Amino acid sequence: MARIIRVDLTPDGIDQALTELRKFKFDFLKACNQMIEKLVIEGIGQAKMHIMAYGAMDTGELVNSVDGFFNPGTRKGIVYANAGYAAFVEYGTGVVGAGASHPDARKDGWAYDVNNHGEKGWVYHSDRDGNFHWTMGMPSRPFMYATAQRLRDKAPGFAEDLFRGL
User: Which domain does 112 fall in, by range?
Assistant: First the structure.
């Protein structure tokens, strides 16, 4: 329902309309802030859920690194994963990743098998278990992409709830 502000074209009527407009602006900006904050909180939960659903839970570091923040002054919110290897999980690596790539890999400028290991793969040392391991890479497990898709689906419902009655 739209808010209707009637204006009596007198000095007092215009002052009253301006007061109502200022209140509407305050209420609208408050709802915008609540919307962004709600999306950030939802996004943190969604990202963690997608990490678990993709089975990217070796040590728990990745899921525990997911966080977010909201700046009411700029009306911007961010959901992020702070683990140093988060992008490798998101986009995948090597020839395995190239065969099961991220939906936006090309658009985002992600490159696979950048060291040209090809099918022979490579060996890496794991600090976690102290052993050497052989790999040809890993497939994309796009937990943030899935989170963004889910937030796009949920945003209209959140907006309807928060902006109803303004």
Answer: 93-140
Residue 98 near residue 120, CB atoms below 8 Å: no
Distances in whole angstroms, Cα of residue 146 to Cα of each of 1, 47, 61, 83, 154 = 33, 8, 19, 18, 12
pLDDT tens profile 72-102? 999 999 999 999 999 999 999 999 999 989 9
Q: Which two tokens stand for residue 90?
A: 């998101």
What token pair was written down for 7? Answer: 């204006």
Q: Which amino acid is at 35?
A: M
Q: Does 87 map to a domain?
A: no
Q: How many Cα atoms are found within 13 Å in the side-chain-facing hemisphere of 132?
A: 3
Q: Give residue 77's identity as a one-letter amino acid code.
A: G
Same domain, 36 and 70: yes
What's the predicted TM-score (pTM) here? 0.84
